[in-house]
Design goal:
single chain; 255 residues; alpha/beta; 2 domains; DUF2268 domain-containing protein; DUF2268
């Protein structure tokens, strides 16, 4: 399945019209809920400003070149064929700018969204697509109705390890270097261990995963990366790690 040409949608349609096209990809979803959900995860509000951004992205051939990267990843990982939707990112989101250089994504087992800007280099685009498509592959290998916090933490660690291996460590997210190994082990024991089996409906789930409130910044993401790095010292084959349950990866890491 190719990268969907959302640039054509963006040229002529209003935000809710555009999100109406996405309702077939979200079971029970409606356009307004989808719109709010995507904005929450980094999409631009799709105002008139977004149309100008889209024009610049089109001149860069962003959709076509992203599709070539996608097919290479799919072949390398023997991954599922899913639709990829590209939209302008919210360049005014300060946290997104600080932690992700104003780029982002959202992955499901059956679809993938990228939020990008014209100034992102091809290596940056490759990095965010690698991260998100790794999520797609992992979710396909470990299907569950709902994922506890431990699975989410490991999911993020695996995806950023994939970026380091396939794109280069210099293109990994900033949060991979926020803390030392000792700090990450301490954070696991102090904050995450007792809550590893909570589900997204739990009030602490997002706070622990993203490090909100009084928790260390990007807590779950950073600890997940530390766990995966430690596990790779025991199991050197990354593809085997991708197949393992989160509990086994944690056991290998000896956190």
């Amino acid at each position: 399945m190719p990268v969907i040409h959302t640039d054509e949608w963006l040229a002529t349609e209003q935000p809710l019209q555009l999100c109406e096209r996405l309702t077939d990809y979200f079971r029970g979803g409606n356009a307004r809920h989808i719109y709010v959900h995507l904005i929450h995860h980094g999409m631009h509000s799709l105002s008139e400003e977004a149309k100008k951004i889209t024009e610049t992205m089109k001149r860069k051939q962003l959709w076509e070149r992203t599709e070539r990267i996608y097919h290479r990843l799919q072949k390398r990982w023997n991954g599922p064929d899913v639709p990829v939707f590209i939209f302008p990112a919210n360049e005014h989101n300060r946290k997104m700018a600080r932690d992700f250089n104003s780029k982002g994504g959202l992955a499901y087992a059956d679809k993938l969204f990228l939020f990008l800007l014209p100034q992102h280099s091809w290596k940056e685009i490759e990095a965010v697509l690698t991260h998100e498509y790794n999520h797609v592959c992992r979710l396909a290998k470990q299907p569950k109705k709902e994922y506890p916090l431990l699975d989410a933490v490991i999911l993020e660690g695996l995806a950023e390890q994939a970026v380091g291996q396939d794109v280069g460590k210099e293109y990994q997210a900033k949060w991979t270097s926020y803390y030392s190994d000792d700090e990450l082990r301490h954070f696991w024991k102090q904050y995450l261990d007792r809550y590893q089996m909570i589900f997204p409906s739990h009030r602490l789930y997002d706070r622990l995963l993203y490090g909100r409130g009084l928790y260390p910044e990007m807590l779950g993401y950073a600890v997940g990366y530390g766990i995966v790095c430690a596990a790779l010292q025991k199991e050197h084959d990354f593809f085997k790690l991708m197949e393992m349950p989160a509990e086994r990866i944690l056991q290998l890491a000896q956190f």
